[in-house]
Amino acid sequence: MVHSPYNTPPKDPKKRLDEREKAFEAKYQFDDALAFKAGVRRAKLMGLWAAGRLGLAEGEGADYAKRAVEADLADPGHAALLEMLRRDLAAAGRDADIEDLSRQMMIQEQTAREQVEAENPRPIG
Question: What is the set of domains in the chain, with CATH numbers?
Fold first, then answer.
């Protein structure tokens, strides 16, 4: 019989199980890292979006986006980020209720996820 990658003899079942477990753990870690990166990106995009509505200059907008990320990381439920955005937009005379901001956050979530996945392709295997 000719040896090829397609007709190799079966491996030890325990070794196969260990390899499968390692693969699942690697996938979990990869997915977890992607989710974290997408969350940070979403907060940054929300900050940039709000900075645009506030009329901030480019440098100020980047600083505002950084504060948005910090607010989001401080509160995993996103309440601090949404309240910061609502308060700042309202102070500038812009309409900003939590429901509208939540809808915008869902839009930015999708954009962030697409960007992060494009930058971090899934490993093969």
Answer: 31-119 (1.10.790.20)
